[in-house]
Write a structure and sequence with these properties.
With 320 residues, this protein is of the alpha/beta class. Helix content is 38%, strand content 18%. Helix 2 runs parallel beside helix 3 and helix 7 packs parallel to helix 9.
């Protein structure tokens, strides 16, 4: 008999006793220090910057306006707050109607959601927590883009709400991080994960399998280290190539070969096998089903991915 992996959905259901859904929010005006030139230019080699534009067009005049940690003012804060409210209302209603969602976590998803002046962040976080049936926040960010002031405020909010912070770990190897133009080293990620845990926050780590020139052993070592740092949840991603990226140029010139599905499944299953039982799983696959995908073809169909993942997991008595 197969046993279900401890998923994030399991964790939320156990804690809140009902269906809790993450509401993915994209706020205009947010960017990334690896795109705006603060630490690097062009972003990570696999990142197609346009793909992170806000999914709704309520605030057209924000186009071209970007915040960073040193921004002195934010003339568009009220419009961002409106954008937040409109997106939350639209998405949470759909989740309620289609999936029976009862409570929600507001997920600040695109770009780097601590990369703005503290007063802007405070206003957005407070607004999100004021919505009906919202039990907490999940904030996607980079470890080089958060301040102690923001971390302290999130720790304060965490006393009454469920506050998660999501860091892109990707790899523990600085050589790899340099190749993908990450803009920071693994010591920086480790430092802020440990600080976030010490502050009492819940931490989700994102891991990418199939990064340039990494062996299976390197990918598994990244998983081991991330678990040792004390992450509470994990997202596993295969690296795929989309058009209009630096990685696409490398792929077209024959300088990068994407991970095969067989190798991805092998690393994924082994990573799950060594995962501490208390670490929940939020994602086991990734891909894109449109003509922007260059390779690998197996990342095009998510249903096929999940079917093959479960086939591989079944061999060790697990299912997702």
């Amino acid at each position: 008999m197969t046993k279900q992996i401890y998923t994030y959905g399991n964790y939320l259901k156990n804690k809140f006793g009902c269906k809790v859904y993450k509401v993915g929010i994209n706020i205009s005006g947010f960017t990334c220090p690896n795109i705006d030139g603060t630490v690097a230019k062009g972003g990570c080699t696999f990142c197609e910057n346009d793909s992170f534009s806000a999914s709704t067009g309520e605030v057209q005049e924000l186009k071209g306006f970007h915040l960073n940690l040193d921004s002195k003012e934010n003339p568009f804060l009220n419009k961002q707050l409106l954008q937040l409210e409109l997106q939350f209302n639209l998405i949470s209603k759909r989740q309620k109607d289609q999936y029976g969602a009862e409570k929600f976590l507001v997920y600040f998803q695109s770009f780097t959601n601590t990369y703005a002046p503290f007063e802007t962040l405070k206003a957005l976080y407070d607004k999100a927590l004021s919505f009906e049936n919202v039990v907490g926040l999940s904030i996607g960010t980079r470890s080089d883009s958060i301040t102690d002031e923001t971390l302290d405020y999130l720790a304060k909010l965490n006393k009454d709400k469920e506050i998660w912070i999501e860091f892109g770990i990707q790899s523990i190897y600085d050589k790899t991080l340099d190749k993908i133009n990450r803009g920071h080293g693994s010591d920086n990620v480790k430092e802020w994960i440990l600080k976030s845990k010490k502050a009492g926050l819940h931490v989700c780590g994102h891991l990418i399998f199939g990064l340039p020139d990494e062996s299976k052993e390197m990918m598994l070592e990244t998983s081991k280290q991330a678990y040792e740092w004390g992450i509470d949840s994990v997202k596993y991603h295969p690296l795929y190539v989309v058009k209009k990226t630096a990685l696409a140029n490398e792929f077209m010139r024959g300088l990068f070969t994407p991970i095969t599905e067989e190798n991805y499944l092998d690393v994924l299953v082994k990573s799950i096998e060594i995962k501490p039982k208390n670490v929940s799983v939020q994602r086991v696959s990734a891909g894109i089903d449109d003509d922007s995908l260059l390779s690998p073809a197996w990342c095009k169909n998510k249903n096929n991915q999940l079917k093959n993942i479960n086939k591989a997991l079944k061999k060790i008595g697990l299912k997702y």
